Amino acid sequence: MNTYALVYFDREQREVLKREVARSFHSFDECRENVLIINGGEDTESTLNLSFQVLQNLSNSIIKKSLKIFIYSNEVFPDAAILDSLLLIMTEYNSNLSLNHASFAQLPNPNIFYFRFLGLFQAGKKCQNISIFDFIENFEYGITNDNIDSKAVFEDSVFNFYNNRIAQSIAGFHNVLQLFPEDGASMKYIERGNEILSN
Fold it and tell me: Where are the domains of the chain?
């Protein structure tokens, strides 16, 4: 199973980000219109650490906010439909760095990284289910105690959402926002929950 770093970027920042990614990964396997694809081989942890390095090296906060990296482990190279689906999910849930469950499971010690379970999503033309984990750092302010404290509340709220306890889930996401006001994923879940309750 190979691990790919999918580096999404705004088209206007294309050349800047290609140079920055090359500094960390030294090369990339493919450059499409809005994504660089790097094959990290079987070493998920190194691929993830190099992704952190890319984000840390970017001094321009505007570019950093627009950059999205998805660590994707699979036996099969991601096709265009998967690439588009993952970008849409990251955009809707305001994630800068995410990974699928296969990548998370291959980390020797995943608890040293600040990831939380974001949810179960359908991706690609075949609508395959993908469990996604989200890095909870705010790239403008870094890791804070409130980010960390919000993890358990967020994950409980996600599980309530998928178990159709929608009102309880919404209340939980509001509690997350009290700790982590910029959390776009909680805002998105509240929006989805309110739509369900209104139908």
Answer: 2-143, 144-199
